[in-house]
């Protein structure tokens, strides 16, 4: 595996990628203005950009103008010569713009270099101690005034719905809660192949959050201007390139900043 260089204020941008529409007119305008993108260029090219934006736990989302990291073992395998093209798990094929990087171990990004960071449905997959590491690392890479937007499933929503269903006499309320929160496991993997395939994913939720707990954790790590967020409400147009309205459903979305001083 090739070692990643450490990115600072100048960001390598992969030109010519595709991104599904949403409020993507804003994203297109931002990319053309801020990421030095040549819309007529069809080959991969490194460009120098004004601001650095990092998304971690990106999955298959790798928009232009963002440095996109994922820690999936499947990504590592897909980057191997020869056999990589044949490796698929849950039909996921990572775009070439996705780089391997684990927020728990630290990303190859310079201190205080990022204008923005984004994590969508990532932090709930981390153990509590690793969650704390992730917030510390996010704070480290953000420059003063840098924006962090994050989304996690809202534990309060699922608990409230479970209790309402339980009070109504719904016999399946408990099982539905365990399935929809991804906290339970219906079957244990058996055999070497099945266990290996399971190791390629991190679909289970390890520590879930509500708004009160999440805001308190962000405050402990030094973040300020903490507020609830909704799809497309960021003053920074760069986030239009990474956000998906479906990810905000039944979720706790927060925007916060690294303080200026």
Kindly describe this structure.
The protein starts with 23 loop residues before the first helix and ends with a strand. Helix 4 (155-167) runs antiparallel to helix 5. The chain has a seven-stranded mixed β-sheet with strand order 3-2-1-4-5-7-6. The chain has a single domain (24-154, 205-257), classed as 3-Layer(aba) Sandwich (Rossmann fold). It has seven helices and seven strands; from the N terminus they run H-E-E-H-E-E-H-E-H-H-H-H-E-E. It has 261 residues and is α/β, with parallel strands linked by helices. Strand 4, helix 3 and strand 5 form a beta-alpha-beta unit. Residues 9-22 and 33-49 have low confidence and may be disordered.
Give a brief outline of the structure:
This protein has 261 residues and is of the alpha/beta class.
How confident is the prediction overall: mean pLDDT?
A: 81
Point out poorly predicted stretches.
9-22, 33-49
CA distance, first residue to last residue? 38 Å
CATH fold assignment: Rossmann fold
Main sheet properties: 7 strands, mixed
**Count of the separate structural domains:** 1
Radius of gyration: 19 Å
- Following the backbone from N to C, one meets helices and strands in this order, namely HEEHEEHEHHHHEE
Q: State which percent range the strand residues make up.
A: 15-25%
CATH H level, superfamily name: Vaccinia Virus protein VP39
């Amino acid at each position: 595996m090739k070692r990643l260089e450490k990115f600072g204020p100048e960001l390598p941008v992969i030109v010519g990628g595709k991104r599904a529409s949403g409020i993507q007119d804003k994203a297109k305008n931002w990319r053309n203005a801020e990421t030095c993108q040549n819309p007529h260029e069809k080959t991969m090219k490194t460009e120098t950009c004004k601001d650095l934006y990092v998304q971690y736990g990106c999955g298959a989302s790798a928009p232009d103008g963002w440095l996109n990291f994922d820690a999936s073992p499947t990504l590592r395998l897909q980057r191997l010569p020869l056999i990589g093209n044949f490796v698929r798990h849950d039909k996921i094929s990572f775009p070439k713009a996705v780089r391997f990087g684990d927020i728990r171990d630290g990303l190859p990004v310079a201190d205080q270099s990022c204008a923005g960071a984004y994590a969508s449905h990532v932090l709930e997959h981390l153990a509590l101690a690793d969650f704390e590491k992730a917030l510390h690392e996010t704070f480290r890479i953000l420059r003063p005034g840098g924006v962090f937007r994050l989304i996690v499933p809202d534990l309060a929503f699922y608990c409230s719905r479970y209790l309402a269903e339980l009070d109504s006499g719904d016999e399946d309320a408990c099982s539905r809660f365990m399935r929809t929160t991804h906290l339970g496991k219906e079957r244990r993997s058996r055999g070497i192949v099945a266990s290996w395939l399971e190791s390629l994913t991190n679909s289970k939720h390890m520590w879930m959050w509500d708004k009160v707990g999440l805001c308190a954790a962000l405050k402990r790590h030094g973040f300020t201007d903490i507020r609830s967020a909704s799809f497309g409400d960021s003053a920074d147009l760069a986030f239009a390139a990474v956000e998906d309205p479906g990810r905000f459903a039944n979720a706790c979305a927060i925007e916060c900043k690294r303080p200026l001083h």
